[in-house]
Amino acid sequence: MTAGPLVVEDATIGYGRVAISEGLSVDIPEGEFTVILGPNACGKSTLLKALARMLKPSAGRVLLDGKDIHSQPTRAVARRLGLLPQSPIAPDGITVADLVARGRYPHQGILKQWSAEDERVVAEAMAATDISELASRGVDELSGGQRQRVWIAMVLAQQTPLLLLDEPTTFLDITHQIEVLDLCAKLHREGRTLVAVLHDLNQAARYATHLIAMRDGEVVAEGAPADIVTADTVQQVFDLPCRIIDDPETGTPLVIPKALASARI
Amino acid sequence: MLDTPRAATEPVARSRTARRVLGLLALVAVLAVLAVLSVAVGSRAMDLGQVWAGLTDAGSDSYPVVTELRLPRTVLGLAAGAALGLAGALMQAMTRNPLADPGLLGVNTGAAAAVVTASFFMGSFGFTGTVVFAFTGAAVASVAVYLIAGAATATPARLALAGAAVTAAGYAYVSAIQLMDAATLDQMRFWSVGSLVNAHVAPMLPVVLLIGGAAAVGVLLARPLNALALGDATATGLGVDPRVLRVAGIAAITVLAGTATAVCGPIVFVGLVVPHVVRAFTGPDQNWVLPYSMLSGAAFLIAADVLGRVIARPAEVQVGIVCAVAGGPFFLYLVSRRKVARL
Ligand SMILES: Nc1ncnc2c1ncn2[C@@H]1O[C@H](COP(=O)(O)OP(=O)(O)OP(=O)(O)O)[C@@H](O)[C@H]1O
Ligand SMILES: [Mg+2]
């Protein structure tokens, strides 16, 4: 198997002197929709930060297209790799269109200011996330779900073949969660490589084409959802006794947590 | 389908841009009027004819007053006001803190500490000497703040804490030296309130060049600062290195505010209030906030200086006092009226 566009090679990642992951190796396969799973605080966001060059490994390397990501100019990386962090900040009073437009930053320069191309890409990104009617609204007056779609539009406007999304479905109701995941699936079908952190195992099993299950900073299991989402792995990763059945809609694995004896009434 | 969003946003965006351009033109006009006033008004008031003669005719009565006193004072006011307005806007953008001002980098106390130290060890020295010591002190203090805040790992919150610590230590030091050595008090009197009265002895060319150069750098930071406004993580994703941006920003702020402070003494509130008011009009886009803050800072400082020359004629009130008296309540009003904008 050839190495994917994003590779973590035997890396130690952490904050200051505290290592969250040691000797971590991860290969993000090209053209796949990879979902990272794992309990709270197991290091999913930390891995994503390392993939997005926000954290520099204290040992080992992160490779983008085969070259150390930290040795490449950061704006060039930003044209290859887009990131939606877990808690982005919107300045007060900014409009939806202006926020989405900021995604164009890596495509502009001192001499290359706002262009018709930028205008078109921003309009497309807003249309794809269904926020076109919100364009002139203030971001601070939107609902959590609308705001999340605005952020996704901002990353889409960056036009990168690789997308890293940290919990893109948090704050969304079930309909909007599915909408965002359908949008991800569409982006994936159009040829982008996606990496997302999700908390819902069933959604992960349904939408991902590649799963990475983590626990305590380590990758516990990795592969196709049908192979990974098993009662054993779920027990091992989440300490959750469960049964697995086939999702009647899609045939993908569906996790049914077991009712604890003590919880039975 | 793609026409819908454009049709929806473009008229709004265009009218907003028109408003911002008009505002900028109005600001330039106000600045021009204020500059003329600043030359005309003083203990000896002039009409426009005398101002013009003073600028152009070396033989006229008004020539010495205009060229030696009022013109340098006006130029210094414009430069220092622009510097403080822009430095404040940069500081607030960089720390994402709407209440930040350049003093937070320790510029004011650094300058004061350097001047008392020099005067304690060397006795009295001329105004240019004061300016050089003050500028050096301001630069040293802001580098110290940056290093204490953790250099490359500095976050907005750590910068604010380090700035507060350095400022407190600096004040204690300045007071201690003054208690030990009464002579420094005299040298320092200028340092308690900002003023433009020393304009005629100030090294004007270096001052204007320093402020001009740093302002050019500062204004170029608008686009990366727009990315930084979305948080360090998003900024990194967009291809901005927040650490590099902070170093560039602190360097520009230090030169801008350090130069203004070195020549005029500490002038508070311009760097705090001006960007605040500007944002209420322009919105959060730094491409507009920075130039607007620069022009508004210049206008505010000149207006305050002219006012200070008028209200207590024939004496004058220092511009630092006028700024504090005018800016303080206005700032309180702003804070109480609308919630302080998060950046
Ligand atoms: N900025 C930081 N500084 C220090 N430690 C951190 C920082 N961010 C996260 N950590 C620690 O790193 C560990 C892993 O955190 P991480 O954010 O990667 O978890 P996660 O798997 O994304 O969890 P969640 O599902 O809750 O988002 C946690 O113990 C956390 O406390
Ligand atoms: Mg997380």
From TrEMBL, chain A:
What is one process in the GO biological process aspect for this record? iron ion transport
Entry-linked SMART domains? AAA (SM00382)
UniProt cross-references to PROSITE patterns, sorted A to Z: ABC_TRANSPORTER_1, ABC_TRANSPORTER_2
Keyword presence, Transport: yes
- Membrane topology value: Peripheral membrane protein
Q: Name one GO cellular component term.
A: plasma membrane
Name the keywords, alphabetized. Answer: ATP-binding, Cell membrane, Ion transport, Iron, Iron transport, Membrane, Nucleotide-binding, Transport
Record-linked InterPro entries: AAA+_ATPase, ABC_transporter-like_ATP-bd, ABC_transporter-like_CS, P-loop_NTPase, Siderophore_ABC-ATPase
Keyword Nucleotide-binding present in the record's keywords: the answer is yes
Q: Which residues form the ABC transporter domain?
A: 6-241
Principal subcellular localization: membrane
Protein name as catalogued: ABC transporter ATP-binding protein
GO molecular function terms here? Answer: ATP binding; ATP hydrolysis activity
Where it sits in the cell: the answer is: Cell membrane
